[in-house]
Amino acid sequence: MVPGELGFVRHLALGLRRSISESLEGRTQGEAPTILRYLLPFTALILVGCGGQQSALDPSGEESEAVYRLFIVMVIGGVAIWLGVSALYIYAARHRQTSWPPAQASALIGWGGVAFPVVVLLALLGYAVWLMPVVRPWNSLAGTDGAIEVTGEQFWWRIRYPGVNGNPAFETANEIRLPVGQPATFSLDATDVIHSFWIPALGGKMDMIPGRTNFLTLTPKRTGIYRAPCAEFCGTSHAYMAFSVVVMEQEDFEVWRRRQISGHERSADQGWELMLRHGCLGCHSLRGEKIGGATAPDLTLIGARHSIGAGTLANTAENIARFIRSPVSVKPGAKMPAFDMLPQREIDDMARYLGGLK
Amino acid sequence: MILDWKRIIAAILALAAAGMLFAWSGLLDIRASTGHWRVTDWFLHWVMRSSVRTASLGTEPPAFTPAMLPLAAGHYEIGCAGCHGSPAMPRPAAAANMLPPPPDLKDVAGSWSDAELFEIVRHGVRYTGMPAWPAVGREDEVWAMVAFVRAYPQMNTTTYRRLAAFSATQSRDFAHLMKTCEGCHSSERLDQTSLIPQLTGQSETYLRDSLKAFVSRKRPSGVMQAALSQTSDEDRGNLAAYFARQTTPERSGPFSGTIDRGRTLAEVGDKARGIAACAACHDRADINPAYPRLAGQPAAYLENQLRLFKAGIRGGGPFADVMTQAVAGLSGEDIRALAAYYGASRN
After folding, report:
1. Which of the two residues, A25 and B98, has the higher pLDDT score?
2. pLDDT tens figures, B40-51
3. Residue A244 sits in the same domain as residue A279
4. How many CB pairs under 8 A join A and B?
């Protein structure tokens, strides 16, 4: 696979964007037709949406590359057929004024209306079926022991890394980290309603169904941070349910895993005292602490995550404070009670403490 | 004379004007001293009985327990005896001249069904002076009062005194106020079946928050609202401080099979059902003092409060909503198990 080939849409978009900025500055060389001059900016605007951290058209994994390839082949095939049919239509309407002899007409219908579509559609279908093992690697189902368990709950993601190679298992929430180039298998489940697991840049989707475990294997090929939204409507805050995926070099991943396993390092801090005092650890946990609940997202090293409230807010102390004060105003339907009865100073102390857990 | 629409309307308007004129003249007397005409009296009672009968259709009384009696008796002494009298005190003369006169419950209790009594106690009766229950949503309190009214005809002075204890809420004397509280809340009067909480062992913050919530109706309770109606902020602050200082006597409840289930829920919670461990917030040394202590409270009280939380009508101090969220996943059986566990726990 040529690396540049996959970024086709992205390169197109970037090229267009450059030409727009040039045309705006009046530095275009040739005289483009007026209609193109006006159309180009809009096309470009639409196309730049194809890139970014939540795009299946900017693939960074083997599975999403296969889907992307299929998409491109289908689009090119569809466009070619459309052009052919349009040409035929124009020819028939404008240039050929006499009717066809019956034998010739039948032959045309037989070849053009039956044989051609059958061959073309079979070819495209054959290509899609041939790609399927890459998109859904059933063969890897045999080895799901090391699968990362992801559980969808209204409206967040419980994530449990299993114990492998003598490393103990650990739980985290709303962020998955993966080493680049290695297939990662996910074991997918849900506790309340159906959610759907989808990392557009890496692959999926796969539904998460209460009482049933689905498996999905994805192989990230580029390091980076990707966004993964819930892809099945699951309630009032469905649109605020996402997780981040961080694809890292193997060594960085090992450092992160060790850091996660070592857990929470308690420090004599007012924020920590307040969290204990108000009973935060009745629902949340900080790995390694004696008290700790399991009904809400794990908060171990929450400061290192890329978002707050499962992909809802940027991870800043202000946003953590905002969430503590009134979770439902950030995420309608969230189960955490509002702590707006606490003095702002106490909320800020806890938010600062949590934000510092990296 | 021809009866047409114009004349009919004119006649109706003239009659209405005449009626208004008569009312304005003041010739109609509204004296209670002279009483109703017998036909008016009959009509008003007939309307009331019919209305109560129809309104109470479909109301299913719960099982009455002896523990309902002290809760209701304390309130009866404060809120009801002043008009209806009590086994310890005849009906006050001032109330006897009301129109209609408040009946002696000994005489009338038998003429109403439980559901009808519930309707009357909860909603009151218009044009009679019978007020509605101060917290209409607290059906549990109203049922306790119905249970009390049922037992009332057979109640002698000694029994009543034992149930209702001491009430002097109108006194400004702190010793009297405190004795009034203890009349219902005193540890000696409580056991596992009590619907009344034990106050000793709670923090001053929790007690003060709760008293404030009763008065502001953030924690609806007809019983406590009436009991606190004559107290000032300062009185309540002093009461909270006083009860927070008292030590709690050792008491253990009956042990049963549900205790283990309750202990597990209290200490570990149930992750699969989204139930957090109670122990993360309750009965820990370093916890927010606004969170109440549960160990040693009467199991029946805890059960009732958890049910009220679950139904969304408990309310309380600033942190009450945290608890409303915490009980969301509890089943009826969980509630009984937790109440039994904390009721049996040592302080």
Report:
1. B98
2. 999 999 999 999
3. no
4. 50
Same domain (yes/no): B144, B59: yes
The residue out of B194, B214, B245 marking a domain boundary is: B245
CB contact under 8 A, A338 and B291: no
Into how many domains does chain B fold? 3
Residue B280 has its nearest CB partner, among A279, A336, A339, at A279
Residues 179-198 on A with a CB inside 8 Å of B are 191
**Please, are residues A297 and A158 in contact by the beta-carbon 8 Å criterion?**
yes
Whether residue B155 is found in the same domain as residue B168:
no
Residue A139, min C-alpha distance to chain B (Å): 31
End position of a domain, from candidates B146, B161, B176: B161
Write down the pLDDT at residue A297. 95
Q: What is the pLDDT of residue B207?
A: 95
Q: Cβ of B287 under 8 Å from any chain A Cβ?
A: yes
Asked if residue A290 is part of any domain, the answer here is: yes
A352 to chain B, closest Cα gap in Å? 20
Q: Tell the residue number behind the tokens 């090229």, with chain if given.
A: A15
Tell me: the pLDDT tens digits for B110-143?
999 999 999 999 999 999 999 999 999 999 999 9
- Does residue B29 lie in a domain region? no
Query: Per the omega criterion (within 30 degrees of 0), is the bond before B100 cis?
Result: yes
Q: CB distance B324–A276 less than 8 Å?
A: no
Residue scoring higher pLDDT (A141 or A68): A68
- The answer to whether the CB atoms of A295 and B319 lie below 8 A apart is no
Who contacts A207 (Cβ-Cβ below 8 Å, separation ≥6)?
A: A188, A194, A195, A196, A197, A214, A232
Kindly state whether residue B340 falls inside one of the protein's structural domains.
Answer: yes
- A272 token code pair: 């920590």
Domain span holding position B156 = 44-161
Q: Are residue B199 and residue B303 in the same domain, yes or no?
A: no
The CATH number assigned to the domain holding B278 equals 1.10.760.10
Confidence of residue B188 (pLDDT cuts 50, 70, 90): confident
A352 — contact with chain B (CB < 8 Å)? no
Which of A278, A283, A294 is closest, CB to CB, to B288?
A278
Whether residue B271 and residue A339 make contact (CB cut-off 8 A), yes or no, is: no
- Give the CA angle between residues B278, B264, A276 to the nearest 5°: 35
The candidate with the shortest Cα–Cα distance to B334, out of B302, B290, B298, B293, is: B302
CA distance A47 to A40: 10
Beta strand pairing call for A313-314 and A307-308: antiparallel
A324 in a structural domain = yes
Check if B269 contacts A (Cβ < 8 Å).
yes
Q: Is residue A274, in this structure, part of any structural domain at all?
A: yes
B22 inside domain: no
Nearest to B273 by CA among A216, A101, A62, A153: A153
Domain residues for the domain of A41 are: 1-51
Query: Given CB atoms, is A340 within the 8 Å cutoff of chain B?
Result: no
What global pTM score does this model have?
Answer: 0.81
Count of domains observed in chain A: 3
